[in-house]
From TrEMBL:
Residues 154-165 have a biased composition (Low complexity). Residues 188-255 form the J domain. It comes from Leptotrichia wadei. It comes from the Bacteria. Keywords: Membrane, Transmembrane, Transmembrane helix. This is DnaJ domain protein. Pfam families: DnaJ. Residues 166-177 have a biased composition (Polar residues). The chain crosses the membrane at residues 21-48, 54-75. Gene3D superfamilies: DnaJ domain, MFS general substrate transporter like domains. Residues 154-177 are annotated as: Disordered. CDD domains: DnaJ.
Amino acid sequence: MKTLIRLVQFILSEIAELCSLISLTIMAIGFYTILPILLFFALLAIIFAGNWSWSLGVLLYVLIACAVFLIFKFIPEFLNFVIGILMNERGENKKIYKKYEQWYESVKSQEYERRRKSQKEYQRQQYEEQQYWKEQYQKWQQYQEYSKQEYSKQQQESRQQYEKQNNNNSRFGYQNTNDGGIIQKFEEYLTVFGIDKNGEINDNVIKKAYRKKMKEVHPDKNSNIDATAQSQKINAINEFLKEQLEYYLIQRRRG
C-alpha cells in the first residue's frame, strides 16, 4: 500500500512539475510579448480616453499568471505534506530517530570503553616501566656499593700486605725503598749462608746452606751463650731469602 501511495505521489509530483514548467514558459512568453502590448494599449487608453480598465486588465493578468505559477509550484509540497500525514511519516521518523539515538549511545559507550581500556593499558605500561627503571637504579646502587666495598677491601689488603712486607724487612734492619736495598740485603745474607751470588741460586741451594749453617749455630751443638740468638737470626735470614728469592732472580735477570 505504501509503495502504491509513493508511486501516486511521484506521478502527481511529476505532473505538477510539468505544469509548473508549462506555466512558467507561458508567463515568460506573456511577459516578453503580450504584456508589453497590453501595457502599450493601457497607456494609450489612459492618455487619450482616461480609461483605466486596460491597466486593471494588465494587473489582473499578472496576478493570475503568478497565482497559477505558485499553485503548480507548491502542489508537490502540498502532496508531500498530505501523504506524510496519511502514511504517518512523523511516527516513522520518530522511530528512525529513536533507533539512531540507540545506535549513537551504543557507539558512544563502546568508544568510552575502548578509551578507558586504552588509558588503563597505558597506565599499566607506565607503571611497569617505572618499576623497571626503579629496579635498574637499585641494582646500579647495589653495584656501586659493592664496588666501593671491593675497592675498600682491596685497598685494605694492599695496605696490610705492604705493612707486612715492611714488618718483615724491619726484622732485618731494612726498609723497602726503591734504591735496590733488597738486592743488597739479599746478597749480604747469601754471604752469611756461604752462597755465591754469581752462582746458581734456588730453593734447594738455600735449604742446604740453611741446614749447614744451623748445624754450626744450633744450641745442641754449640755451647756459646748467644747460640740461641744466632739460631733465631739464621731462621729469620732463611725466611727472608725464601720470600725475596723470586724478586731477586727477576732483578738479576733484568741486570
